[in-house]
Amino acid sequence: MKTWVLLRGLMRESRHWGDFIPKLQAAYPNDRLITIDWPGNGLLHQEKSLIHIRDMVGHIRQTLINQQCSGPFYVLAISLGAMAAVAWANAFPKEIRACILINTSLRPFNPFYHRLRLQSLPALIRLLFSDTAGKEIIILELTSTSQPQAALAQWIQFQKQFPVSRANILRQLAAAMLYRANKPDVPLLLLSGAKDQLVSPACSQTLAEKWQVPCWVHTQAGHDLPLDDGDWVLNKLALYLTSLH
């Protein structure tokens, strides 16, 4: 039995994995899946978001202790969550069996204008001053090529139930921009959406080249790869897990 730790990104909570979670559980019925909300998001929306990635690592580890989980863990993480996964792997490599990183970007390997695509800046600024529905419409437009309206309706309800404050959005953005990474000594796989409007796909490609790790690219997907094509992600996971044994 494997234990998976799933980490989402900026402004997202565990429920934003959507139907990918039941699909992953169906693919690995004997495995345990742990989803973690960041302070400021989801169940923890009333808490102050962490401004340093190292503190997010502490949050992950304490959450796992509280849930009586022991590693080594298989970590599946997207965007900001993938930064925290890298920091965790750097600090505590023995706790991690493998990291699968989706559409991440890391300083100093990727320039700031790739880590946050300049054309997305006007939308992000609008997001900070939009109402609940407006925020989620912008996020869906930035992160998905398929833009399923059923997901949008769910996201609006999530945000109404557990709103993420403007201050916490800015704190999470700061954490992402400030973090500086090193290559961790754990098995790594990079997954990337070629039509990502938020983070340049060049970020994953650069990391793959510099770190000498595999990178698989979905030619049609955006930033939220599990939303745009969860089955493709599962297929790549299965191929990668086979290569680990």
Automatic annotation (TrEMBL):
Residues 5-233 form the AB hydrolase-1 domain. It comes from Iodobacter fluviatilis. Keywords: Membrane, Transferase, Transmembrane, Transmembrane helix. The lineage of its organism: Bacteria, Pseudomonadati, Pseudomonadota, Betaproteobacteria, Neisseriales. One of its GO terms (molecular function) is transferase activity. Pfam families: Abhydrolase_6. The keyword DNA-binding does not apply. InterPro entries: AB_hydrolase_1, AB_hydrolase_fold. The chain crosses the membrane at residues 71-89. This is Acetoin dehydrogenase E2 subunit dihydrolipoyllysine-residue acetyltransferase.
